[in-house]
């Protein structure tokens, strides 16, 4: 009887370990990746309704997106982080990190804050439009 009980316990443990392993492997593949049309380089054109110039940034900020992460520049400091697709035309920039070089980019803080609060996007005529709960925040052209 003890042998049968031990065999039952071993089989139960083996099955539960396999089940947990299967769940963890499917969880990572079910993470929604961002749409292919977003996965490219975008250069900032407009910030909070105003056309950006090199007076605002030493060089224009850019974002390079792949299926689940992004990198780029604020015009002075390098940035990177993760992307989360929350459904159709919904995207968030998560875990955003930035270098801390002292720059003469007057709009850098505003640019970073708007990226952190971004929740939606649209693409029209090769331009990317980002928005938050208050409306349109930025637009980019293909880089």
From TrEMBL:
It comes from the Bacteria. Residues 1-20 form the signal peptide. The keyword Ribonucleoprotein does not apply. Residues 37-140 form the DUF306 domain. Pfam families: META. Keywords: Signal. This is META domain-containing protein. It comes from Flavobacterium psychroterrae.
